[in-house]
Structures are given as structure tokens and as C-alpha cells.
Amino acid sequence: MLDYGKEAVRYDASRGGEPRAVAAADAVLSLLPPGTGPLLDVACGTGLVTRRLAAEPSLRVVGVDAAYGMARMAADRVPGTVVLGDSRRLPFRDGTFDAATAVWLLHLLSDPDEAAAVVGECARVLRPGGVLVTTVDKAASHNVGSDIDAALAGRPVRSPVDGAARVEQYAAAYGLTRAGGARFRGHGQGRSPRSTVEDLRRGWFTSVPPDGALADRFARRLAELPDQEVRRPDPEFALLAFRKPLG
Description:
single chain, 7 strands, globular, alpha/beta, 10 helices, Rossmann fold
């Protein structure tokens, strides 16, 4: 997995910046019930999405992230509302928030038990009637049917811990019921052959060791593609919302 503390300095520029953050925040906001007040942005990263959510007058947003470099950048963007914390053991009391968001988090976790634990923690800190909004199927969203996807065909792919059906199971185990969904464009995240090779070499593809023979093979395939600097279509990401029962 990438070191997200070190990744913080290049995170926004390499992942679509403000346009992607605005698209993500607007999709999240579309799934929140009217009158939502306190909201916890879990794994808030550099705070681009957090800042957009915090701009909504009715919301009182708190961000939490385990990576110091990420949390420091978020705290600069949304002063006084960001804390360091592990999403598997959130540093908040039961029933503190009307909503919790987990954007681009679950796919990073090592196994279903860990992902379920994060969903359970979000459920714990929600008030009765509160809503969890999370991205699902992150890796699959990047497959846009391009020549790059064809060049990467056959690489080992682990069963996604953030698959929609799995996430729904995690949620149900903690009494949360599905309450809607939305999609948004990942502005600026379309891959070029050259950028994909760079991602291979820095460990973005977690099932392909960056310095091994397998990475070499895929890098050669990618180097043979035309238009090395041209980005292919942007991915489209999926969100699901889950509600905590009132009683």
C-alpha cells in the first residue's frame, strides 16, 4: 500500500484536484437527509472534500485521518475541525454524528474483517436515524474499457473488500439499511500509458510488486501503446448510503 503520509504532498495534483473533490462532495450531499448537522468525514485525506462539505451552512463537519501528513493539510484547509485517528477505532463517543462519510477508504483496507470494522465504527458514532455514505467498487471504476485496461488484463486482482454487495453485508451486520446511491465523475483521473507505468512503479497496483518481473511485463505492454501522454476517459465512482434505525 502507498504511504499516504508521504503521498500527501502530491495527492491532490495526481487525483483531479478541486474538480474531483467538488464532484465527490456534491454527490455525498445529495444523499444526506435535510437538516443533517454534525458530520464526520472519515479518512478525510488532504481535506479537499471536507472543505467543500464544511461550506454547507447546515453541516458541522469534523474530519479524521490516520496519516499525519494528510491530517495536517486538511487542518490547514478546515481549521479547528480535523483530528488524528484510526478509522477502525474512531476517537468519538457513540451517537455523536448525524452522518458519516468514507470516500475512497474501504478499498484500501486489507481484508473484509477490517472493512467491516470501519463500517461498524461509523455505525457506532451515528445517532439513530443517521446516515453513512461510502464509496464502493473503487478499483472496478477505473476500468473504462480503454487500451490501457486491455494492456493490464491478466494481472492478479484481489477480491475487492469494497464491493457493493460486501459493503451492504457489512452494513446489515450493524443494523444499517440501504438508503440510496449516487455516482460522480473522477475528474482528472483518466489514465495515460505513462502515468500508469508510474503508478505501477510506486505500488498503486497492490497485487503487483512494483520492482518485480510482473510489473516489468505490464510496463512493457504499456510502453507499446500509442499516445503515451494522452489520458483515457475519467472513471465514474459509485456511492452508497446506509441509514441507522431510529430505535
